[in-house]
Write a structure and sequence with these properties.
The chain has 211 residues and is α/β, with parallel strands linked by helices. The chain contains 8 helices and 9 strands.
Amino acid sequence: MKRFEIITEADARLLEVGSTVELAPRGHVTPLAADTLRDRRITVSRADGREIVAGAPPADVRRVAVGSDHTGVALRRAIVTHLRAQGRAVDESGAQGSEPVDYPDVAAVVALAVARGEADGGIVIDGAGLGSCMAANKIAGIRAAMCITPTLARYAREHNGANVLTLGATLLSTDAALAIVDTWLATPMTEPRYIRRLARIHRLETGGSAT
């Protein structure tokens, strides 16, 4: 793990997206570097045991990766149209008709786009949303949540920093799904205690202990 006494914006731009670095106990992160670290979802762990997490999802989601298997084509197209009407850029992938496709493959495409910083957030749709959630969460740096209500979408984002939303096409009407999507996109993760917990998730993801 790289260790810094000070992290500048130039340093932050050279770090790998989704990586973790160590800051000396009296080290400093410049304001511009903090913005870049957040955008690149980089976690900064202090040598004195305190943590700064820059891995919170962007509050302003401008580019969204959206994919579905064959069961979610109609809902995916409705969501894509809705997002583009809001002025968001959308990268669409997945099935084009009723011919079956495997949901893990679609979930991987969306999750990788988010993990690589090519999209600010991702939405994956299958029959129930559960399989895509499981598959997306196998990609390092992804925190996928399957939501069936706007309340769950708000909690997934505000408390847990979900950067991928999964939906079940057989469980939701189009209007219900759009309400969930709008809530998820509009909810920022700003509370420091919630953001700090992302470091615990990252430790688990990389084979360590949460504490």
